[in-house]
Each structure stands twice: as structure tokens, then as C-alpha cells.
């Protein structure tokens, strides 16, 4: 029985829907890509997210303005990775690939983070993590080439899948930079609001050029509903539920719920966008999830699982 007065019960209930909020970026973005141009969509998403967050983030921004100004170069790079490439870049990609492909390829981000920390921070990668990285990469390749050896050998890749893979790498870079010690004392919502504003600023020049060239600006109610949905669901709600989970049950437990992103994302794409679930999606999903779990789940959880299995075996004997 769930008692919503209990903070832990409430946190677990929210964490069960958190991956749906993150997945909504690819699903809503795929639908919106037919009516809103990519740069405009990304710019309006992050500008609206900043406006929504500002009342809650203003005090922290004001108190830590010196640190934010000192770290403006890092914040600019993070905005480029997280809001520019993972914003407009993803929306460009969704013109050429499916939300299902995008969701599954994006799931490789945790192992990409491990690779970047190994390359740039000298983090040691154990045998289990290395195997996980290999499995996840094979899973991504399986989806990108649609399970076809001929496509792999002929390098006939879908441009959208390649862009999504680059966006996953950019998100990994964003996540690594987020761990900088200089940013550790800034309240979460204040830092996120600052990044949202920085992202909107990096997107603004391209949005102006795009509007001038295409003459298109969202005018329909459906287009603005998509933009509002991205700002609220894929930005504010996804981030705030993630942070609430970290506060109540800790980062390790909260991180485990991110493994629900692929089934949520693919299911939403099948239901709302009418996309087909192919065998290579299933194969890629199994490989990616196996790789992500091997590479990122804390060793202590594996040890507990082994101990329980050993205990069950002894009990049977």
C-alpha cells in the first residue's frame, strides 16, 4: 500500500513516471518536427523553460552570480552540448529517424559518460564496465543499421540515427561537465535555469536566420501545445522529479529508474506516433540495456544479488 504522506513512497511514485517525462522529448519532438522548424522549436522550448523556472531559481542565481559569471565559458559549452546539439540537433534528427530509434540510441549515454571520464579524467574502467561498453555500442550499431549486415558493410546509415548518436555523445559531455566542483554549491534549479537561458541564447541567432529563410513561426494551437509540452514535461518536470528522487532516496537508487527510459520511449512512440516495433529494436534494446546495467550499476548491487542467489542455493540443499 502506497502512503503518499511518506516522502520515500512519494519519491518512488514520482520516479516511476520520471522516465516518461524524459522520453517525451523524443516523442513530442518527433510530432512537432512536422509543424515547427528545429531551431525555433529548441529555442522556444528552452526560453519557456527558463521563464517557468525563474521564480524558483532567482534567489539562487542572485546569491551565486559571481560563480556563474566566472564559469561562463563552461556554462556556454554545457549549453552548446545540452540545449543546442541535444535540442535542435535532435529535432533535425527526428525528421529522418523514428522516436523509437532515438530513444534506444540515447540509452547509450551512461556508457559514453564512462568513456569520456576515462579519456579526460583518467577514470579506471574495469572488465565488467568494458564489457558493458562493448555490448551497448553493439546495440546502438544494431539499431542504426537496422540489423542489416549489408547496411553495416556498405555504411548506408540513416542521417537521423547518426545525429542522435552524436547527441547522445554530447549529452554525455554535458553530464561530465555538470560534475565540476566549481558548480557544486549552486542550487540545482538555479543552475538549470541558467543553463536553459544560456541554451536559448546560443540558439537565438540560428532561430532568427531560420525564420528569415523559411518565413515560418509557430502559429497554430497544436504547435504551441507541442512547445509547451516540451518545456514542461521534457524539461521542468523531468528535471525536478529527478532532483527530488536524488534528495529523498539518493543518486544511486534514482539513477536505476533511468533504465525505464527505453521501454517508456518505445511504447509511447508505438502508441502515439504509430511507429512499428521491429525485431532489431528488441535486439538492440537487450544489448544496450545489458551493457548499461553491466557498466553503471554499482558493484554492491551485484554482490547483494550474488549473495541472495548463493543463499537460495544453500537453502535448497
Please specify the SSE layout and strand pairing.
Layout: H1 7-32, H2 38-63, H3 65-70, H4 72-93, H5 99-106, H6 109-121, H7 127-144, H8 149-154, H9 159-177, H10 188-214, H11 221-249, H12 251-256, H13 261-273, H14 279-296, H15 299-316
Helix pairs in contact: 1-5, 1-11, 1-13, 2-4, 2-10, 2-11, 4-9, 4-10, 5-9, 5-13, 5-14, 6-7, 6-9, 7-14
Largest sheet: none
Tell me roughly what share of residues is in helical segments.
over 70%
The count of β-strands is 0
Radius of gyration: 20 Å
Q: Tell me the span between the first and last alpha carbons.
A: 35 Å
Kindly estimate the percentage of residues that lie in beta strands according to DSSP: under 5%
What is the count of structural domains? Answer: 1
Q: What letter string, H or E per element, gives the SSE order?
A: HHHHHHHHHHHHHHH
Averaged pLDDT: 81
Query: What structural category do the secondary elements indicate?
Result: mainly alpha
Instruction: Give the uncertain stretches in residue-range form.
Output: none
Which of globular, elongated, flat, extended, rod-shaped describes the shape? Answer: globular
Number of helical stretches of at least 4 residues:
15
Amino acid at each position: 500500500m502506497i502512503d503518499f504522506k511518506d516522502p520515500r513512497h512519494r519519491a518512488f511514485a514520482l520516479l516511476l513516471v520520471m522516465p516518461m517525462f524524459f522520453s517525451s522529448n523524443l516523442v513530442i519532438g518527433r510530432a512537432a518536427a512536422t509543424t515547427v522548424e528545429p531551431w525555433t522549436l529548441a529555442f522556444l522550448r528552452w526560453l519557456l523553460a527558463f521563464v517557468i523556472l525563474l521564480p524558483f531559481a532567482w534567489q539562487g542565481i542572485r546569491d551565486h552570480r559571481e560563480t556563474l559569471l566566472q564559469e561562463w565559458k563552461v556554462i556556454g559549452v554545457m549549453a552548446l552540448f545540452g540545449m543546442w546539439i541535444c535540442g535542435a540537433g535532435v529535432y533535425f534528427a527526428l525528421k529522418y529517424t523514428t522516436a523509437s530509434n532515438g530513444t534506444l540510441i540515447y540509452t547509450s549515454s551512461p556508457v559514453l559518460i564512462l568513456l569520456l571520464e576515462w579519456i579526460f579524467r583518467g577514470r579506471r574502467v574495469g572488465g565488467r564496465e568494458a564489457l558493458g561498453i562493448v555490448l551497448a555500442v553493439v546495440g546502438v550499431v544494431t539499431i542504426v543499421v537496422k540489423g542489416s549486415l549489408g547496411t553495416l558493410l556498405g555504411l548506408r546509415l540513416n542521417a537521423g540515427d547518426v545525429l542522435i548518436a552524436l547527441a547522445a555523445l554530447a549529452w554525455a559531455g554535458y553530464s561530465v561537465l555538470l560534475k565540476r566542483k566549481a558548480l557544486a554549491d549552486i542550487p540545482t534549479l538555479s543552475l538549470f535555469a541558467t543553463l536553459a537561458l544560456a541554451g536559448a541564447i546560443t540558439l537565438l541567432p540560428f532561430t532568427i536566420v531560420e525564420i528569415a529563410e523559411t518565413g515560418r513561426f509557430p502559429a497554430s494551437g497544436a504547435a504551441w501545445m507541442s512547445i509547451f509540452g516540451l518545456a514542461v514535461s521534457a524539461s521542468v518536470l523531468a528535471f525536478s522529479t529527478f532532483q527530488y528522487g536524488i534528495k529523498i532516496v539518493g543518486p544511486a537508487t534514482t539513477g536505476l529508474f533511468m533504465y525505464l527510459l527505453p521501454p517508456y520511449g518505445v511504447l509511447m512512440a508505438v502508441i502515439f506516433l504509430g511507429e512499428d516495433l521491429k525485431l532489431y529494436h528488441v535486439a538492440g534494446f537487450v544489448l544496450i540495456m545489458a551493457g548499461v546495467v553491466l557498466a553503471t550499476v554499482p558493484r554492491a548491487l551485484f554482490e547483494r544479488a550474488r549473495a541472495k542467489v548463493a543463499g537460495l542455493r544453500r537453502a535448497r540443499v
